[in-house]
Each structure stands twice: as structure tokens, then as C-alpha cells.
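TA notes, week 10

Several of you asked for a full example with nothing omitted. So below is the full record: C-alpha cells for the whole chain, then the designed sequence directly under it. When grading your own attempts, check the secondary structure regions first.
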């Protein structure tokens, strides 16, 4: 299971992150859009270096190389902007350096267009978002994923995922789930993680 950071700082954040790793969190995405490079560096310095191979950076990719982090994430807009460049050098550079790349999509058509450059991609929002008010999909993504043609890239459900809908999500064809709001915007983040994990592990 994947967890995405809260966009802004939250109380006891580093301790929660360490507890999530101890409970079996596979990957932790660091998405802090308002943080500058110095703030990201400071944030990373507080996370036990033992977990660096399970961290995913959403920006300041140069820090990944410097700190021994081998996973980076391209937002949908950043991926599309890169594809508009004359060549694929950005993607190829990181792949030849041994990085694992991931991205985000909001339609199954965009997901189907991904090649094996990307290990996995988030499709969102599956349900009304817990962390973003009034953020819902304009289409039924469970119907949309019936059109899935890309099985090279793992399809990860994001948006409104919590214990009550994990089973339905995985039964409908997603390869895995990502948690955000149920960790950072509700009480008992560790218990919420463990509840989702227990259901996910039954698939």
C-alpha cells in the first residue's frame, strides 16, 4: 500500500511516517507543493535513512540522486510537459540511472497511453476526496477502467480511499491503493492504515 504525504506540515508527522513504515507501508510519496528545496531537504533529513529506498519525490529530483532516493513521481502536467519536449531525454536519463518512475492520470485513456517508462500510475479521484473539498470525478471510474488496455503499468486507485471501500476498489480491477485523506485528515492514522492494509492483503 502507498501513502502520500499531507501537502502541508501536520503535527507529529515524522513519527507517524516512521510508524507507517513499521506497519508495512510499501512506499511513501513526498508531495509538499509549497515547500522550497531547503524545506524538502530538512523534511527528508528527519526521516530515518533506512527508509530512503521507499521514498518517492514529487519535485527537486536532484535531491533524489544526492540522498540515495531512487524513486521519483511526475505529476500529470509535468509528464505531459516533458512529452512535449523534442526528445524523451528526461525520462530516459532517470531510467538509465536506475530510477523507478511513477505518474498521475485522471482518465483511463491517459493511463492506456503510458508506456513501460512508468512502474505505476495513480488514477483519481475514485471516490469524493477526503482531503480536497468538492473534488470528485466527472465520470464513473469503475466503468472507465473496463476499457483498460495497459497492463504494463500498475493501476493505483487514489481519492477517497478508506477501509469501507478498499474491497470494492480492488475487486473492480485496481492493482493497489494509495491513501492520503484517511491518514492525514481523520483521527487514528495508524489504525486507519492497518484497517485498509488488512483488507488489501486479503486480495
Amino acid at each position: 500500500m502507498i501513502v502520500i504525504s499531507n501537502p502541508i506540515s501536520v503535527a507529529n508527522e515524522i513519527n507517524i511516517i516512521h510508524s507507517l513504515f513499521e506497519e508495512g507501508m510499501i512506499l511513501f510519496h513526498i508531495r509538499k507543493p509549497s515547500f522550497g528545496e531547503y524545506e524538502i531537504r530538512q523534511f527528508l533529513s528527519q526521516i530515518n535513512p533506512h527508509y530512503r529506498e521507499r521514498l518517492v519525490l514529487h519535485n527537486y529530483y536532484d535531491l533524489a540522486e544526492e540522498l540515495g532516493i531512487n524513486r521519483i513521481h511526475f505529476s500529470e502536467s509535468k509528464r505531459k510537459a516533458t512529452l512535449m519536449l523534442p526528445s524523451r531525454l528526461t525520462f530516459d536519463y532517470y531510467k538509465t540511472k536506475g530510477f523507478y518512475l511513477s505518474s498521475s492520470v485522471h482518465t483511463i485513456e491517459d493511463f492506456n497511453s503510458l508506456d513501460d517508462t512508468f512502474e505505476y500510475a495513480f488514477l483519481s479521484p475514485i471516490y469524493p476526496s477526503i482531503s480536497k473539498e468538492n473534488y470528485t470525478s466527472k465520470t464513473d471510474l469503475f466503468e472507465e477502467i473496463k476499457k483498460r488496455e495497459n497492463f504494463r503499468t500498475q493501476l493505483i486507485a487514489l481519492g477517497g480511499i478508506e477501509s469501507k471501500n478498499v474491497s470494492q476498489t480492488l475487486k473492480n480491477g485496481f492493482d493497489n491503493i494509495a491513501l492520503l485523506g484517511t491518514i492525514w485528515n481523520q483521527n487514528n492514522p495508524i489504525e486507519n492504515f492497518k484497517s485498509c492494509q488488512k483488507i488489501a492483503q486479503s486480495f
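The two ends are 12 Å apart (CA to CA). Use that as a sanity check on your answer.
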